[in-house]
């Protein structure tokens, strides 16, 4: 059985005030064609289909179009769960009705966990759908157990005999959350987090050894594609780069081929996005020379790390003339000095050229030389004459 594992679509995402909807539509068109070409048996979406619990109408429309093409036109079942960005109730609306067409969506955790069974020439494959789960939800399901942490919550659900996988069948788990893997020999395989993915002291980490009984575990939540402890427990990563700190990640789609029980093969496919997110570096003058940028698309989303020694007037405007989708900039070498704080009385007691010398020193960390002081005095004299 051939499965396509994806997660973290984040439809409707806005990055640095740029809507990613057009980029998402472009990518999903290619994903749909890939699913058809591969003659896949199912598409897995491991949470965060949308970026917000109340998604924009355009994001809902895009999801509707893509899922219809995959389920109805291509005839490929889709199995999806809610992530922490999704609204469980909205995502699961009419889910029992949709399953008759091959769209299986689970928004909340119910006991027993929802299972979907598909078959191939080797027999049945059982998919267990485990949406994002918080300790408070688990305490409501298991009031007699002491559940304080996320690990307690997931352990309560997965160690419930009602949710135990049948060892005679091939089993796939679809889950969403922060997971690490503590092996039997004590090795801790902690996942790679982006700067925007913060685990609060590890309190929300769940030991993925709870998943050992499954033949493949399709995870969602972290945007960097990666495995946890073993090849068959894996984060697919987000479809696209959704922040500057993801600029150096290589996104990919996971193809999972299940043979007989115990036989699992993985392959990874990357698609060229409509516009990449990348970081550029240099002075404003260097970056604004179009000939220096010939090898890379100018309409990519870029963040500029400037090496200028001093701030450049309207640097963002100059760069936007070359990079229309610039997302921001930072100065890597210029560090403003601590500003001199003066009282109103002290300001009034100083001349204009004295105030400018202090300002120049605060901004550059250097003192005006003799020639520069002459220029400042000439400018101030001219300004004074124009005022009279």
Describe the structure.
There is one protein chain. With 388 residues, the protein is α/β, with parallel strands linked by helices. The chain is 27% helix and 24% strand. It has 11 helices and 20 strands. Strand 10 (179-182) and strand 11 form a beta hairpin. Helix 5 packs parallel to helix 6 (150-158). The longest helix is centred in the N-terminal third of the chain and has 18 residues, at 21-38. The radius of gyration is 28 Å and the shape is elongated.
List keywords for this structure.
388 residues; alpha/beta; six-stranded mixed β-sheet
Biggest pleated sheet:
6 strands, mixed
Structural class: alpha/beta
Stretches with pLDDT under 50, minimum 5 residues: none
Distance between the termini: 86 Å
Strand tally is 20
Tally of helical runs: 11
- Evaluate the radius of gyration: 28 Å
Average pLDDT works out at 91
Q: What form results from the Cα inertia axes?
A: elongated
**Portion of residues within helices:** 25-40%
Give a brief rundown of this model:
The chain has about 400 residues and is of the alpha/beta class. The protein has helices at about 20-40, 55-75, 90, 95-100, 135-140, 150-160, 285, 315-320, 345-350, 350-365, 370-385, and strands at about 1-5, 15, 20, 40-45, 80, 105, 115-120, 125-130, 170-175, 180, 190, 205, 215-220, 225-230, 230-235, 255-260, 265-270, 275-280, 300-305, 325-330.
Topology:
Elements: E1 2-6, E2 14-15, E3 18-19, H1 21-38, E4 42-45, H2 57-73, E5 78-81, H3 88-91, H4 95-98, E6 103-106, E7 114-120, E8 123-130, H5 135-141, H6 150-158, E9 170-176, E10 179-182, E11 188-189, E12 206-207, E13 216-220, E14 226-228, E15 230-235, E16 253-258, E17 264-269, E18 277-282, H7 284-287, E19 301-306, H8 315-320, E20 326-331, H9 344-349, H10 352-364, H11 370-387
């Amino acid at each position: 059985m051939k499965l396509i594992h994806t997660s973290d679509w984040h439809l409707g995402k806005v990055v640095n005030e740029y809507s990613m909807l057009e980029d998402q539509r472009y990518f999903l068109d290619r994903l749909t064609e890939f699913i058809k070409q591969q003659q896949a048996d199912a598409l897995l979406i491991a949470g965060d289909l949308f970026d917000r619990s109340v998604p924009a109408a355009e994001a809902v429309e895009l999801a509707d179009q893509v899922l219809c093409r995959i389920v109805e036109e291509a005839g490929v079942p889709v199995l999806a769960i809610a992530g922490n960005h999704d609204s469980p109730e909205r995502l699961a609306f009419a889910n029992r009705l949709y399953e008759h067409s091959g769209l299986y969506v689970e928004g909340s955790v119910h006991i027993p966990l929802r299972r979907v069974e598909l078959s191939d020439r080797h027999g049945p494959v059982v998919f267990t759908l485990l949406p994002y789960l918080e300790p408070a939800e688990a305490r409501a399901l298991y009031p007699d157990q002491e559940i304080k942490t996320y690990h307690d919550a997931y352990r309560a659900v997965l160690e419930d005999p009602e949710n135990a996988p049948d060892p005679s069948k091939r089993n796939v788990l679809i889950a969403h959350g922060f997971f690490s893997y503590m092996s039997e020999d004590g090795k801790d395989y902690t996942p790679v987090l982006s700067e925007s993915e913060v685990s609060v002291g590890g309190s929300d980490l769940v030991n993925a050894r709870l998943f050992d009984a499954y033949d493949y575990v399709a995870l969602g939540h972290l945007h960097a594609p990666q495995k946890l402890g073993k090849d068959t427990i894996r984060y697919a990563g987000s479809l696209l780069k959704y922040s500057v700190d993801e600029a150096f990640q290589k996104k990919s789609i996971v193809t999972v081929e299940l043979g007989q029980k115990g036989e699992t093969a993985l392959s990874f496919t990357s698609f060229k996005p409509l516009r990449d997110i990348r970081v550029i570096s240099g002075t404003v003058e260097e970056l604004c020379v179009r000939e220096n940028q010939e090898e890379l698309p100018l309409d990519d989303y870029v963040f500029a790390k400037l090496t200028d020694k001093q701030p450049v007037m309207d640097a963002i405007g100059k760069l936007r003339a070359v990079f229309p989708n610039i997302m921001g900039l930072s100065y890597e070498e210029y560090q403003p000095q601590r500003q001199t704080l003066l009282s109103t009385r002290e300001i009034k007691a100083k001349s204009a050229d004295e105030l400018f010398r202090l300002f120049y020193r605060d901004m550059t960390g250097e003192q005006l030389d003799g020639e520069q002081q002459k220029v400042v005095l000439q400018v101030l004299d001219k300004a004074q004459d124009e005022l009279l």
